[in-house]
Write a structure and sequence with these properties.
The protein is of the alpha/beta class. It has helices at 3-23, 28-37, 44-60, 68-76, 80-83, 145-151, 177-180, 189-197, 215-223, 236-239, 242-249, 263-266, 295-298, 301-318, 341-350, 374-377; strands at residues 134-138, 156-157, 164-167, 184-186, 205-208, 228-233, 254-257, 274-280, 322-332, 354-357, 364-366, 369-372, 382-389. It has 3 domains: 3-106; 134-186, Sun protein, domain 3 (Alpha-Beta Plaits, 2-Layer Sandwich); 189-389, Vaccinia Virus protein VP39 (Rossmann fold), CATH 3.40.50.150.
Amino acid sequence: MTPSARVQAAIEILDAVIASARDDGPPADAIVGQYFKTRRYAGSKDRRAVRELVFRAIRRCGEIPASGRQAMLGLASEDADLAVLFDGSPHGPAPVVEGEAGAAEQLLPQWLEPELSPLVPRDEWPALLERAPLDLRVNITSTTREAALAAFDGASPTAHSPWGIRLPADSRIDQNSAYLNGLVEVQDEGSQLIALACEPRAGMRLVDLCAGAGGKALALAAAAPGVEILACDTNRMRLAKLAPRAERAGARIDVRLLDGGREADQLADWNGQADLVLVDAPCSGSGTWRRNPEGRWRLTSERLARVIALQARILDLAVPLVKPGGTLVYAVCSLLRREGAGQMEAFLGRHSSWAVQDALAFGRQDGGGRLLTPGHDGTDGFFVARLKRSC
């Protein structure tokens, strides 16, 4: 592909990403992969170059642009080498016409700015969209962090998690024997710290109420062999990924698919039985924008309101499962106050028999919990709170 053809390919992909964001379709990564499945002529250098252009344009646009061309023109307004490629050459973009403007640069959608936690000042906003490193969690039941560090080029220990190692962005691990043999799992350091906040111990009975594909359940199982874990979710496709991951890691985890609206009945056998319930709740995903920058385009005020209501419902669902003296850990990969400290204020207003415990020695105190941010902690953005039920 010529340099101009790469720009045109990025414009076409951006058009598809914009449409998908509006229609709640596939993520940008999937769209890039699908685009090149039907264009076998594009070599690996072409694919990397086009992907880089796509994500540079996405990160630059806080508001959803009108078109892929507008997004790319905005990028070209700051890059003379890119601007000259709008030359009308075969398979390249048409020349810029008089008065044609690119998308304005903006880190965050304007409506979201007041929703951010006050602990995320404006000078930290660029870190929310930097390219994220690749973090791995070492399966400490099978190997040591030192051995895992030696298995990967460019690896370094993570700053806070005793189980974590960090690789450069876009590192490939799928053919590494340590990964294939279940010695490591892909997991951001912030997510590892949530498992650490649970303080799992052998003999405990734990419920991971929103387990998804099971990343935190696997971390809990590795941290405390002998712990009993029930991993639940209402999403069949995501939960189905846990069993093969657990088998590869040598972890024993019970799995239960829940029906939306009938969760309380289906969990009645656990009422008053759990030493700890982890609620890693559905959220805005604002803490993962550096990995999924088009998430800013998908979030609306209506969607945020729905997810906040869902978080409150799941927290209330968790309450009867916790035995007297037991613990509830609430976490969201979000930097928005209403999903974090605000959600905890509302919960404590509804449930007076719970007391806040300090969840972590890392991050910053944010109301009844701790906030981890890319700019301050080098992790994805997370709010985590730890609550104890009175005896």
